Amino acid sequence: MGQHLRRVKTRHIILAVMCLMYFISYIDRVNIAVAGPLIRHEMGLTTMELGLVFSAFAYPYAAMQIIGGWLSDKFGPKLVLTTLSLIWGAATLATGFAGSVIVLVMLRFVLGIGEGGAFPTATRAFTYWMPVGERGFAQGITHSFARLGGAVTPPVVLAVVVASGWRSAFILLGIASLAWTVLYLFVFTNSPEQNRRITPEETAEIGYRAGDCERAKRSATPWRKLIHRMWLVTFVDFCYGWLLWVYLTWLPSYLKESRGFDLKHLALFTALPLLAGVVGDTLGGVVSDRIFKLTGRLRFARCAVLVVGMGGSLAFLLPTISVADPLTAVWLLTGSFFFLEITNPVLWTLPLDIAGKYAGTAGGMMNTGFGLAGMVSPVAFGYLIEHTGGYGAPFAVSAGLLALGIVAALFIDTSRTVEADEERERQEGARTGGALAFLDAVPPVRIERHIFRRPLRWRR
Predict the structure, then answer these.
(1) The Major facilitator superfamily (MFS) profile domain covers which part of the protein (predicted)?
(2) How far is Cα 288 from Cα 345, in angstroms, rounded to an integer?
(3) 188 plus 255 within the same structural domain
(4) Highest mean pLDDT range out of 2-6, 7-11, 147-151, 265-269?
(5) 1, 31, 349, 449: which is deepest, by most CB within 10 A?
(6) Residue 453 falls within a domain, yes or no?
């Protein structure tokens, strides 16, 4: 009995493997920013060429959101995520051998293809492995590992660069990604019924019904219903993503140019908000699940955390625009990012809540908002800095979008699910079929021309 109680649940092992994926993939994504100055010096790249290398990742990343999610719905997350991780692992490894800007751009483009579909596919992987009351925690802890990956990338990559050069950093990270793929193949299955380790008790806890996974693969994707149910979530994710991309791209420049921090303090104060985000991601998912368990109201559990998270982020962001003390500005930005990341696990949980077996496609739709924000936000932020001469106007625009996101979050309804729509249509079809069943017994009526009837002729 004691051994049985100490047994680690299969879904928690799978969750740990997925956390490792988020961690490694985020390092693979942002390591180019750390190695960028050395690559530029070695290859003699211009600023524009280096910018092209940086941006090559974003476009296939955005395009692959829906494609990757849809493929995982149709072919299962095991096959799709294995393929995607092989793609981005190989691209990372090959970057260590790149010799020209064209090759670098191509490899970053391929990396965007691999990583673009990874997070929607991972969301789909949780559909049959995480009960409703643990989905927020699962999304929170995985994205915490993603933020942790972003925070530790500079010291980890720089340590490797100092020891053996920037190429070694990419080679080692590529090998780590491919090693994770092997681990994933051994541990993950598309559903509990395919896993030899899981117990019937844990399957009951998850709420999985035998055959659900195979039935989902045969279901036609209800694009219209998914768009109708997910567009509002996508817009909220765009508002969230706008400010997140500001942190990921402009924070070091802001701290250096507007607040006057030197390079010694810059690394610390850039990492501080990201580390706060690690805590925020986990906390947001845990709090949302806890509210649901206490109240039984799923919509309230999700929307309350969205509103509090974005509202708190807005409350800390607004004083940053006018505060004079640089250190106070850092703490305000840290608080703003902490609350911003509270919303992230809830946003990623909503595709599971609303779309169910179509969570891969729905997650891709949702994260397309983040991808579009990644294309627009850094450029628009830079444009506003250049034309206003400061960071006040760009931060004000970001605050305005947060306010719009808060309003939109109030109208998200987790009770209006895609599967509920399908069930209602089936019931209506059954009622209609029963009401008109008597027509099947009526013989068909044939309308024929009488043999003695002559065709009508027009006379003058």
Answers:
(1) 14-417
(2) 9
(3) no
(4) 7-11
(5) 349
(6) no
Amino acid letter, 45: L
Distance (Å, whole) CA 332 – CA 444: 77
**What is the count of structural domains for the chain?**
2
Q: Write out the two tokens for 10.
A: 């299969």
* Alpha-carbon dihedral sign for residues 123, 368, 50, 251: negative
Tell me, yes or no, whether 163 and 250 share the same domain. no
Verify that 165 and 259 share a domain, yes or no: no
> Is the pLDDT at 232 greater than 60, yes or no?
yes
Structure tokens at 332: 């305000």
Which residues 6+ apart lie within 8 Å of 226 measured at CB? 355, 358, 361, 362, 365, 418
Q: Indicate whether 172 and 235 sit together in one domain.
A: no
Q: Which amino acid is at 197?
A: R
Q: What is the CATH number of the domain that holds 180?
A: 1.20.1250.20
- Same domain for 416 and 290: yes
Which residue from 317, 338, 362, 346 is spatially nearest to 409, judged by alpha carbons? 346
Least confident piece of the model among 1-10, 184-193, 241-250? 1-10
368 and 407 share one domain: yes
456 domain-assigned: no
> Same domain, yes or no, for 95 and 187?
yes
Residue 364's domain comprises 222-429
* Residue 296 resides in a domain: yes
Show which of 137, 171, 192 is a domain's final residue: 192
Of 95 and 273, the structure prediction assigns the larger pLDDT to 95
Query: For residues 111 and 93, what is the distance between their CA atoms, to the nearest angstrom?
Result: 10
Residue 458 has pLDDT above 80, yes or no: no
Question: Which ranges of 126-262 does DSSP label H, i.e. alpha helix?
Answer: 135-164, 166-187, 200-206, 212-218, 223-253
DSSP readout, 56-111? TTHHHHHHHHHHHHHHHHHH-HHHHHHHHHHHHHHHHHHHTT--SHHHHHHHHHHH
Answer yes or no: is pLDDT of 441 > 60.
no
In the chain, % of residues over pLDDT 90: 37
Q: Cα separations (Å) of 381 from 75, 245, 253, 360, 435?
A: 39, 10, 12, 31, 60
Query: Which tens digits make up the pLDDT trace of 317-346?
Result: 999 888 888 889 889 999 999 999 999 999
Contact 349, 414 (CB under 8 A): no
pTM for this structure?
0.77
